[in-house]
Write a structure and sequence with these properties.
single chain, 331 residues, alpha+beta, BirA Bifunctional Protein, domain 2, eight-stranded mixed beta sheet, three-stranded antiparallel beta sheet, 9 helices
């Protein structure tokens, strides 16, 4: 590992200085909005709720010799929601998070997640937050893969159903639960053992994501309810959840929810996700009982989001690889 050497560090230094300026500007924006910055433990009972992610596990050795399994968190979400339940109404965190078995120009095993929550508000307010934070980059263009996006432009708001109709020629909700039908109408191949969700994501990756956030940011919202592990259903439309993702130049920058507050439904979803994880990968994580206890105590109506801060710095600086915006990468 030689990224500390003066010549290599000097090449990254303009990106790193831009990173520091953007982080400072964001902290000031959150302070002006009345948020409190929090720090929550990295070591958790479970790394998160994601079915397809792989975590880092370790043993906590107590002074009496007892050992407890703990995971490096993939998101501070559970911990921050506990603070919401405890009475903190607006909070944010620049969290170091960890995801195993990942590595690409846009992925690193340890990275920075900017996560924030608002009590007593809906996810539309979080959409407005995203537009405000993109403008703080201080550049005229965000860039990736030969594409550009104006960070000050009003984001396009597009539902998942509209995106499938526009870019894949698919009436998505007419195919729900029928993987063969979704494959046939979209022209995207179905592999042996594929579920409807598998075909959905293949269409997303192949036909939809590469066309989002061109010229202006895209807010892709109202995901199918089956893809809403931690989001509440949308009132008036039981097919979809209050979930959106923010895209710029075809890159997913953030994932947001109108948060699920019902502890019984949340427990069912977490159990179902771990059952699926065990079926697919032979692995399951424990359910964080303290998180469910916080929901039982009373999680207020709230909305929250996780934004990949390193990715935003990449797009703001024109960096070609995530390691170009890290002070030192993992080796």
């Amino acid at each position: 590992m030689t990224e500390w050497r003066p010549d290599k560090l000097a090449r990254r230094l303009p990106n790193l200085q831009a990173r520091a300026r953007l982080q400072a500007a964001m902290r000031q924006w959150f302070a002006t909005e009345g948020f409190v910055e929090v720090e929550t433990p990295i070591l958790q009972v479970a790394p998160g709720a994601e079915v397809h992610l792989t975590g880092f596990v370790t043993d906590w050795e107590l002074p009496d010799g007892e050992e407890r399994e703990r995971w490096l968190h993939s998101s501070p979400e559970f911990a921050m929601k506990k603070l919401l339940a405890g009475g903190v109404p607006k909070l944010f965190q620049f969290a170091r998070v960890f995801r195993n078995a990942e590595g690409s120009a846009l992925h690193h095993p340890e990275f920075t997640m900017l996560e924030w929550y608002r009590a007593s508000t809906g996810y539309e307010t979080i959409m407005q937050d995203c537009a405000a934070l993109l403008a703080l980059t201080g550049v005229d263009e965000l860039r990736w893969g030969g594409h550009v996006c104006d960070p000050r432009a009003e984001p396009e708001r597009l539902t998942v159903g509209e995106a499938f109709a526009r870019y894949a020629g698919v009436d998505l909700f007419a195919t729900v639960g029928n993987a063969e039908a979704l494959s046939a109408v979209s022209g995207v191949a179905m592999h042996a053992g594929d579920s409807w969700d598998d075909v959905f994501f293949r269409i997303m990756f192949d036909k939809i994501e590469p066309r989002l956030g061109m010229g202006r940011p895209t807010i892709l919202c109202e995901y199918p309810i089956s893809m809403a592990a931690l989001a509440r259903g949308k009132p008036g439309d039981p097919r979809v959840a209050e979930r959106f993702e923010l895209y710029v130049c075809g890159v997913e920058l953030a994932n947001a929810f109108g948060e699920l507050t019902d502890p019984a439904i949340q427990a069912e979803r977490l159990q179902a996700d771990m059952d699926l994880k065990e079926e697919l990968y032979g692995l399951r994580w424990p359910v964080d009982g303290d998180f469910l206890a916080a929901l039982e105590h009373g999680l207020p109506d709230c909305a929250g989001i996780a934004l990949g801060f390193d990715r935003l710095v990449m797009l703001a600086t024109g960096a070609k690889h995530i390691e170009d915006v890290l002070w030192l990468p993992v080796r």
